[in-house]
Design goal:
alpha/beta, two-stranded antiparallel sheet, transferase, Amidase, TAT_signal, AS_sf, transferase activity
């Protein structure tokens, strides 16, 4: 006998369950995470006690009957209390819920199927952005292209390899350089440095050379598509490219193919850019560890590149692509840009269509460029933003970047407490007292080492404010809203677990390279115990967070901040854009690099990059780009590059 969700008896049982639960002050979907995860464990289970008032619902696929003891365990995880009578009343309805979930599971939902509800970060009562015709990025004086020629590829390769997109574009437009020659150079560099940096998953060499030859023919014939025409680039390997595997960086997906290009790939094709590689990403968009190894930081190859846009950050920093595309859910553009000394632009949520890209968290995923300058990032974003008719989250917001505007007229804030120098605090006595003398000494040494690193980097960040004031920028101190933003990250966890539900259910999560407590396999399993009620409550709380962040930006065009901290969580949850730029190198007096027991140490040691971030209101990235570009021109930090062996 199988359960029929449409049968009259099923409907009656469901209505009775809802009525009883409501009377007890409980929601009808209290346990879809906690209880379902417990009750679908394939272990022996005794039937529930007889219930004279209700006929027991049959279970699908032989799962054990739900018992009051299971409800006790689920209730403890859900942090609620139930009486014995309430538990007895719930048994039949909970079995129905489980059967419904099992029926949905048989649909084998593809990762590309988005939820019916679409996240909108625009606060209630705020006008939606108005659609306007795209405009070219307004750039300043044309850069020097001296030395950027085809002849220089053999004698001065680095001068060409580390040139900006704008410089390369000018050289191509003026026929000082051919796209084929540039593409071959970057392909050779990818092959040369991949054995040590592990940033390539798949080269798209045949496609690239055909695109480059076409670009040269078009430009020779006077058909110029714009500043990206003929520029070689790399895609984070969660963007589908027809004819090539799209692996998501994950073991078990190495041979995955899609029969259509991602929308961003289509738009860059239309702009004349040349795709030369699918670049590495941490498995399923986590960190820098993928099935081929750990992507490395070109400034310190003993250190990971960070991620999850690992190959995008590393390859740009190593001068192996003109630019790259990354994605961010919670730091995946910001972190590798910081670690590798690249420039990243994380757009507002809903500015760039994600069609054809792997979904991790539908209400947080964003696609953006990583390049060598803010100008480059603005040029790339200008080619990929705007609705596509498929990704329903995309707003018709404009991106009209004017990098020549007078930055002195911008309303600029800075997160004051984030720039304050830290003060050393000893280990808490209650923690230290539980340790042996040797353990305490080790812990105190590590605690002091962490403080010294934080203090060193805080001084570098604080110098940013002096530079901006020297540029006649008026800075106003401001603080983040008082809100527990990190408490809302159950949204990320639950959506990610849903995106890869089949991986967990099938047990194929065991194929993934990372299997630590902080890796996705354990995270996906843990997230199954987030109830639907708690997920919705987190989304409701997110409405309040959005309102608080909107209020923060009412008085500012740009807010300057260190690249880490609470702002990273808040802006990713609430959708604000960020421009991340290199902010110099740690000096020889910096605390030493030490991997220690940490597989992916955050601190790179002397000679490694740091960054600073420029935030903007929702869909206000153009002004953040203007200030960040002016800062880059003033400091020149983006022109530094690693010395590769």
């Amino acid at each position: 006998m199988t359960f029929d969700a449409n049968a009259p008896s099923a409907g009656l049982a469901r209505r009775r369950f809802l009525a009883v639960s409501a009377a007890a002050g409980l929601g009808g979907t209290l346990f879809p995470g906690t209880l379902f995860a417990l009750a679908t464990q394939p272990s022996a289970g005794s039937p529930p006690p007889a219930n004279e008032s209700m006929e027991a619902q049959p279970d699908l696929r032989g799962w054990p009957a739900i018992t009051p003891e299971m409800i006790d365990a689920a209730a403890a995880i859900a942090a609620i209390k139930l009486s014995n009578e309430q538990k007895q009343m719930m048994l039949d309805g909970l079995t129905g819920q489980r059967n419904s979930a099992l029926r949905v599971r048989t649909l084998n939902l593809a990762n590309s199927v988005a939820p019916a509800d679409v996240f909108n970060p625009v606060p209630t009562g705020t006008p939606l952005p108005h659609a306007t015709a795209p405009l070219p990025v307004k750039l300043g004086t044309a850069p020097s292209i001296s030395g950027i020629t085809s002849a220089a590829l053999s004698s001065q390769e680095d001068a060409v390899a580390f040139a900006t997109v704008r410089q390369l574009g000018e050289a191509l437009r003026l026929r000082k350089l051919t796209s084929v020659a540039l593409t071959k150079m970057y392909l050779a560099r990818l092959k040369r440095y991949d054995p040590s940096l592990h940033f390539v998953i798949t080269l798209t060499e045949e496609r690239a050379l055909a695109q480059a030859a076409q670009a040269d023919r078009e430009m020779a014939a006077g058909k110029y598509r714009g500043p990206l025409h003929g520029i070689p680039w790399g895609a984070k390997d969660l963007l589908a490219v027809k004819g090539y595997p799209t692996t998501w960086g994950a073991a078990g997906f190495e041979e995955q193919h899609f029969d259509e290009d991602a929308e961003v790939v289509k738009r860059l094709d239309a702009a004349g850019a040349v795709l030369i590689a699918k670049l590495s990403m941490g498995a399923l968009a986590q960190g820098d560890l993928w099935f081929g190894g750990r992507t490395r930081n070109p400034w310190n190859p003993r250190q990971g590149s960070s991620g999850s846009s690992a190959g995008s950050g590393s390859a740009v920093a190593a001068g192996c692509v003109g630019f790259a595309i990354g994605t961010e859910t919670l730091g995946s553009i910001s972190s590798p840009s910081t670690r590798c000394g690249a420039t990243g632009l994380r757009p507002s949520f809903g500015l760039v269509p994600r069609t054809g890209g792997m979904a991790l968290t539908w209400s947080m995923d964003k696609i953006g460029p990583i390049a060598r300058s803010v100008e480059d990032c603005a040029l790339v974003l200008n080619a990929i933003y705007g609705p596509d008719g498929h990704d329903q989250s995309v707003q018709p917001a404009p991106f009209h970047a004017d990098l020549t505007l007078d930055i002195r007229k911008l309303r600029v804030g800075y997160l004051k407490s984030a720039f304050d120098l830290p003060v050393f605090q000893p280990l808490p006595a209650e923690a230290a007292d539980k340790l042996s003398a040797a353990e305490r000494a080790d812990r105190e040494q590590e605690h002091r080492r962490d403080f010294d690193r934080n203090l060193y980097d805080a001084k570098l960040a604080a110098a940013t404010l002096d530079r901006l004031r020297a540029m006649n920028v008026t800075l106003t101190p401001v603080e983040m809203p008082t809100f527990h933003f990190s408490a809302l990250l159950n949204v990320l966890s639950a959506e990610a677990a849903a995106a890869f539900d089949e991986l967990t259910i099938s047990g194929r999560d065991a194929l993934l390279t990372g299997q630590k407590s902080y890796d996705w396999p354990n995270g996906f399993r843990t997230a199954r115990f987030i109830s639907a009620v708690d997920y919705i409550q987190a989304q409701r709380a997110r409405t309040l967070a959005i309102a608080a962040m909107h209020k923060l930006f009412l008085d500012f065009d740009v807010i300057v901040t260190p690249s880490s901290g609470a702002q990273l969580t808040a802006t990713n949850l609430c959708g604000q854009p960020a421009v991340i730029v290199p902010n110099g190198l740690r000096g020889e007096d910096a605390p030493a690099f030490s991997a220690g027991k940490d597989e992916w140490p955050d601190y790179g040691g002397p000679g490694t990059p740091v960054s600073i971030t420029f935030l903007a209101p929702l869909y206000g990235e153009a002004k953040a780009c203007a200030l960040a570009a002016a800062y880059q021109q003033k400091t020149g930090f983006h022109r530094l590059h690693p010395k590769l062996g």
